[in-house]
């Protein structure tokens, strides 16, 4: 049985004070018997302050992105060593906003994933189709391409450090959540794909999160799907009560 994994991506929101307050409310409200692993993903500038709040608690700390070089003349970028130094345990790669707003390619995303694993950090690899791709029947083709580009050639030990987040782009920040059938079908497809690339045991161990307008009132049904092992949450993670409501649905 895979333990649910619920992560809150705060994106480009929150002052340091707001992020600290949010983390404090979350730590306070989190039941000691919560049925899920829980993580917060503040922006780089809030990581140090949030670290002070979550250290010694069950809340994991992640970063929204990373650069694949170790150090040097890469103005504006943050390396894996810097993330580790700040107490970060994992980072997102391939979030749809980085793919479709910033223009990151599968090749860049893979370099970031490799850099994180080389630094012994965990990864949440985000994949998902655009609305036009779903409408043209290309969802599985897109998932195939993005998953293969992301994890082909990893060892089983490396794969254990990777969580995949299925995030249909049309459902992110739009209030349009995927139906439980759409989510389950995409997650099952991803798990079968991972099994075909690695082993069934590797695929059975992998946690696949759903992301896209997850709220307290839809989390329970989504998380009840056999291949939905958690949630990557944007908007609803910015308020402690709604994020805690989602965790309660796990
Ligand atoms: C996300 O940022 O990954 C996300 C799923 O956002 P939202 O929950 O707001 O749709």
Number of strands: 8
**By helix and strand content, what is the structural category?**
alpha/beta
CATH class descriptor = Alpha Beta
Low-confidence stretches: none
Description:
The structure is a single chain. With 250 residues, the protein is α/β, with parallel strands linked by helices. The chain has a single domain, classed as TIM Barrel. The protein has helices at residues 16-29, 44-54, 80-85, 96-102, 106-118, 131-135, 139-151, 156-159, 180-197, 200-205, 216-223, 240-248; strands spanning 4-9, 36-41, 59-63, 90-93, 122-127, 162-166, 208-211, 230-233. The chain has an eight-stranded parallel beta barrel, surrounded by six helices. α1 (16-29) packs parallel to α12 (240-248) and α7 (139-151) packs across α9. The longest helix has 18 residues, at 180-197. The chain is globular, with a radius of gyration of 17 Å. The two termini are 13 Å apart. It binds phosphoenolpyruvate. Phosphoenolpyruvate (PEP) binds at residues 9, 11, 167, 172-173, 211-214, 232-236.
Q: Which structural traits does this protein have?
A:
16% strand; 46% helix; TIM Barrel; 8-stranded parallel barrel; binds phosphoenolpyruvate; single chain; alpha/beta
Give the SSE map.
Elements: E1 4-9, H1 16-29, E2 36-41, H2 44-54, E3 59-63, H3 80-85, E4 90-93, H4 96-102, H5 106-118, E5 122-127, H6 131-135, H7 139-151, H8 156-159, E6 162-166, H9 180-197, H10 200-205, E7 208-211, H11 216-223, E8 230-233, H12 240-248
Parallel strand pairs: 1-2, 1-8, 2-3, 3-4, 4-5, 5-6, 6-7, 7-8
The chain binds phosphoenolpyruvate (PEP).
